[in-house]
Specification:
With 402 residues, the chain is mostly beta strands. It has helices spanning 3-15, 382-401; strands at residues 37-41, 64-68, 80-82, 87-93, 119-123, 127-132, 146-147, 152-155, 166-173, 231-232, 238-243, 246-251, 256-257, 264-265. The chain is 8% helix and 16% strand. A seven-stranded antiparallel sheet has the order 1-2-9-6-5-4-7, with no helix packed on it.
Length: 402
């Protein structure tokens, strides 16, 4: 049978009311004071018999009462009521009259908080505990609070259906509390009690207070339809597991796949076959768009899924034309060739200017002793100028050798 099938069976058994297999938390004394309690009224097991087959009870009593020495006069001493174990606050009521001397009359009776009036109800795991009849304005916790063993809850009072200052505790099965099948439990074990094991770490002697040492908090129970390994939900939309009472869930966007031990969430698809899964592909319907694709600048398309299109580099700026040293540019608008330029022997039009020289322009070597060789002779252009230039070079060379 699959884990999902097992989970369904376990859930059905849980609804049938099978008990939890997690060990219950062992509780401590609900009062902090030492010697402030002067009398005890225990759970009635019929014929006004308490758990020890004694008479420290009264007919129909379904809790355990711890009465203050000094009665209502001792309420102002602020005798602390504390949590008997770790748990979560389920309910609180406060603000009722707290000096009642009978179960009825003005401001007292069962019409005030079901008779418990100023009270705190705590879920201690397997049990829910009522702490009742407390002092008005003393409640120190709120619904939903998480409490630790020994944490202050309020002070002893005489509110609701009460004949004198005392604390009433009343545990019940947490699974049935508030469902109409509420059944109080005697926390004490004894010859006349049906309780199999005491709810206290140390319940103490008869007509004595339980010990004040806290028991180990219980291991949180996991819901019956969970496992300690990742398990797919029935609709395969998520997977869940429970460790020490904490349920974790992970949504599976691409579906959940049952596996040998931990079920796994399915991998995203690659619909366009470009090697990039849908969770990292910006367009899983276009094989040309994915992380690592060649980006084309300026086309308005984000091919490499970087978030925007690649901007094209700007056009290069042309360098300005710089004439050679000693050459004067032609007059603007005249069409004349610049000084020193040659004319085409075929068309008679000005020839192209000399090439642009970038960097320092070489200066002609100065010959102070030969004034005739300083200046290149001018010519009319064409082959006649070439002959004149050759003759000038030969003449100057001979003079220098001389």
């Amino acid at each position: 049978m699959s884990r999902m099938g097992i989970a369904a069976v376990v859930a059905a058994l849980a609804l049938a009311g099978l008990p939890s297999t997690v060990a219950a938390q062992e509780l401590r004394s609900p009062v902090e004071c030492d010697g402030c309690i002067g009398w005890w009224y225990y759970f009635d097991h019929g014929f006004s018999r308490d758990w020890n087959c004694g008479s420290a009870t009264y007919s129909g009593h379904t809790g355990s009462d711890y009465s203050l020495n000094g009665g209502n006069r001792a309420i102002d001493d602020d005798n602390a009521v504390v949590a008997m174990g770790a748990g979560t606050v389920v309910k609180t009521e406060d603000g009722y009259f707290d000096r009642c001397t009978q179960c009825g009359g003005a401001n007292c009776g069962t019409g005030f908080g079901n008779g418990f009036a100023n009270q705190v109800v705590i879920n201690h795991g397997d049990y829910r505990m009522i702490y009742g009849h407390m002092k008005s304005g003393s409640i120190a916790v709120a619904e939903g609070d998480t409490v630790e063993c020994g944490q202050l809850l309020g002070f002893i009072g005489s509110s609701g259906c009460s004949t004198g200052a005392h604390l009433h505790i009343e545990p019940s099965d947490a699974a049935s509390f508030g469902t109409g099948r509420y059944t109080p439990i005697d926390p004490y074990v004894g010859e006349c009690s049906p309780t199999a094991a005491t709810l206290f770490l140390d319940q103490g002697a008869y007509r004595q207070m339980p010990g004040t040492e806290c028991g180990e908090p219980p291991v949180p129970a996991c819901p019956p339809d969970t496992f300690d390994v990742w398990t797919c939900s029935e609709d395969l939309a998520l997977r869940r597991r429970c460790l020490e009472g904490v349920v974790s869930e992970e949504p599976c966007e691409w579906g959940c796949t049952p596996a040998g031990t931990d079920d796994v969430c399915g991998l995203p698809p690659d619909a366009d076959g470009d090697g990039a899964r849908a969770d990292v592909d910006c367009d899983d319907a276009d094989g040309g768009r994915h992380a690592g694709a060649l980006e084309v600048c300026g086309d308005g398309i984000d091919q490499d899924c970087s978030g925007d299109d690649l901007a094209c580099p700007p056009e290069p700026v042309p360098m300005p034309t710089v004439p050679p040293a000693g050459v004067t540019p032609g007059a603007a608008g005249t069409g004349a060739a610049p000084t020193g330029a040659t004319s085409s022997p075929v068309t008679g039009q000005p020839a192209a200017p000399p090439p642009i020289v970038v960097g320092p322009v070489a200066q002609p070597r100065q010959e102070p002793e030969d004034e005739g060789c300083r200046v290149v002779p001018a010519g009319g252009g064409g082959w006649l100028q070439m002959l004149a230039l050759v003759a000038w070079v030969i003449t100057c060379t001979r003079r220098r050798r001389a």
